[in-house]
Write a structure and sequence with these properties.
The chain contains five helices and two strands. By secondary structure, it is mostly helical. It has one domain (29-98). Strands 1-2 form a two-stranded parallel sheet. Helix 5 (80-90) links the parallel strand 1 (67-70) and strand 2 (95-98).
Length: 99
């Protein structure tokens, strides 16, 4: 029984380490957040919505994705072209797929 606890504790510690590593890897770099062109592009979107554009750009760049699907709820389709333009501008070589 004590041996089971040790294994559980090790598993929990490993899970915490893995979660911390994931947080570190998913941090948006300053070169994206502080880019004046990027800030100007995001300013075209309404401030009352959180589109998570910096996180998306970072994820696309870090994964090396070539094709990314854009899926929005019906009420936000109005912003699909603007978001697509931002993605195309800041992720060169990336093609859009609409769904």
């Amino acid at each position: 029984m004590e041996e089971d606890r040790r294994q559980t504790d090790l598993g929990t510690a490993a899970d915490i380490e893995e979660a911390q590593l994931a947080k570190f890897l998913n941090r948006v770099p300053k070169e994206i957040l502080e880019d004046p062109n990027f800030k100007a592009a995001i300013a075209r979107l309404p401030a009352n919505y959180n589109f998570a554009i910096p996180e998306t750009i970072h994820r696309i760049r870090s994964s090396g994705a070539q094709k990314v699907a854009l899926k929005l709820p019906e009420g936000l389709l109005l912003f699909a072209i603007t978001i697509s333009d931002i993605r195309t501008q800041f992720c060169p070589g990336n093609r859009d797929a609409y769904g």
